[in-house]
Amino acid sequence: MYGAQIGLAERSPDVKLHPSQAAEIVRGLPAFAGLPVQTGIALIEAGQMIEYDEGHPLITQGQSSDHALILIEGSAEVFVETKYGSVHLASLEAPAFVGEMGVFTNVLRTASIKAQTRGLAVRLDANELHRFGQQNPSFLSTLMGQLGKRFETFNKALGFYSHALGALERDEFDLSLLDDLKHPLPELVDFSRSFVRLAEQITLRRAHREEMANARAIQESMLPAYEALEECKAYVEIKAAMRPARDVGGDLYDFFLLDSDRVAVTVGDVCGKGIPAALFMAMTQMVMRYMLRHEPDVGAAATAGNALLAATNREMMFATLFCSVLDLKTGVLSYCSCGHHSPLILRRGGAMEKTTEFNLALGLGENTKYRANSMVLEPLDRLFLFTDGFSDAINKDELRYGDDRLEEVAESLRASASNAFINGLMKSVDEFAGAVPQFDDLTSLLVTFIERKS
Question: Strands 382-386 and 112-115, how do they pair?
Fold first, then answer.
């Protein structure tokens, strides 16, 4: 036990303390309350008066409990040594009775005590304490009572922590519970503070995860539904997948009918990650949806959309975007590549092609003009759009997945069903990266032109 503590008048370190003075101090401790003066003096004289400097080890964890100490002057720190380092348990101010429970229970020291200041103590050997206890049964009774109270306090504390941990596990933890930890048991001060920090972090992170889950749900709700192409499913099939590197991402894909004969298809990648990129992505998607519906061609839509994005872009964010419109009657694909890398055109005859025309990314120059280009898709040709999360993926050896590998895998999957094509590419990247965390968002979209609309 670390003992109860009472006040002590200051004394010059050069003045020796008389046993009768020490006895008066000792008699103020609960364990020695009511002790006759002569009995107190005899106890002090039977012990050894020791002086020590700051930092002096008074009791060492793991050693034999062959003595106890009555701290007469000074202060000390109680701590436990673990394999992770020292853990502070309590600070003591003299007078205090320490080490006595180890003496009477015959166990090794369970904690260490080190002087925080210069001090004075009486060292009582185990044999002397046993003899004193036999001669003064009230002393032993008081020690047992104090031990019982301490166990009661510990049990209440452990009960509270068990309840709090259960509440954390069930997601029912209320931060008001932490008010009960403002005045913990001295031996649990450090543990209590650590528990408070842990509970606060868990609660805050849980709230953050809920916010991110809501943000991701909102982002996913902005993605197009396949039902939007129901009326043209006989002529074109589109499958897409997006997997953010974080809770929310900066990639986007979109497809929708401009009219009964034309389908708009876009895939883009916003610089950066997380919430800022997701917000700019949402803005880019909404702007381009509007412009593609209201401008005469894809180049004009990109020009107008870029002017709007750049005019309000104080953070200088930008988005690469491949936007296109497929005419279902002619198979003509009008497109504008705004800083985005080329899609792969998988021809039904076995050829693989890329586009070579590029414009500036969206959001960088307010007066930039964008030019549209076109190609013709024949029935059963495929257009594969993707973001650079595929080619930039790395493995444990810091090797890139790369464009060549992507083209090889796409070639091997060219005859697969659309879902199998998309899933096969995702699986290929995952197997290449192995245990390396996903660095960038992965987005892919496959357009299969089935036949011309008559």
Answer: unpaired
> Which residue shows structure tokens 């960088």?
364
pLDDT band, residue 215 (cuts 50/70/90): low
Return the minimum-mean-pLDDT range out of 272-286, 320-334, 416-430: 272-286
Give the residue ranges of DSSP H helices in 71-116. 100-105
Tell me the pLDDT tens digit for each residue of 251-298.
Answer: 889 999 999 999 999 999 988 776 777 778 888 888 999 999 999 899
Residue 127 token pair: 């044999």
**Around Cβ 437, how many Cβ atoms within 10 Å?**
7
Residue 423, helix vs strand vs coil: helix
373: amino acid identity, one letter = N
* 1 half-sphere exposure, CB direction, 13 A CA radius: 24
Residue 98 has a CB neighbour count (10 Å cut-off) of 21
Eight-class DSSP state of 113: E
At 360-399, the pLDDT tens digits run 999 988 899 999 999 999 999 999 999 998 999 999 999 9
- The answer to whether residues 73 and 8 touch, using CB atoms and an 8 Å cutoff, is yes
Start-to-end CA span in the chain (Å): 94
Ordered structural domains, the chain, with CATH? 19-135 (2.60.120.10), 159-215 (no CATH), 224-449 (3.60.40.10)
Note the pLDDT of residue 211: 57
* Distances in whole angstroms, Cα of residue 46 to Cα of each of 51, 114, 127, 247: 16, 24, 11, 70
Distance between CA atoms of 99 and 186, rounded to whole angstroms? 16
Among the listed residues 446, 407, 450, the one whose alpha carbon sits nearest the alpha carbon of residue 423:
446
> Any residues with CB less than 8 A from the CB of 224 and at least 6 apart, and which?
253, 254, 255, 256
Q: Which of 385-424 are b and which e, b meaning 16 or more Cβ less than 10 Å from the residue's Cβ?
A: bbbbbbbebbeeeeeebebebbeebbeebbeeebeebbbe
In this predicted structure, which of 188-197, 225-234, 313-322, 427-436 has the lowest mean pLDDT?
188-197
Structure tokens at 371: 């030019």
Q: What sections of 60-169 are H helices per DSSP?
A: 100-105, 126-135, 137-169
Q: Is 231 helix (H, G, I), strand (E, B) or coil?
A: helix
Confidence class for position 37, pLDDT limits 50, 70, 90: confident
Q: What is the rounded CA–CA span in Å between residue 225 and residue 187? A: 60
User: If we measure between CA atoms, which residue out of 356, 429, 419, 346 comes closest to residue 384?
Assistant: 346
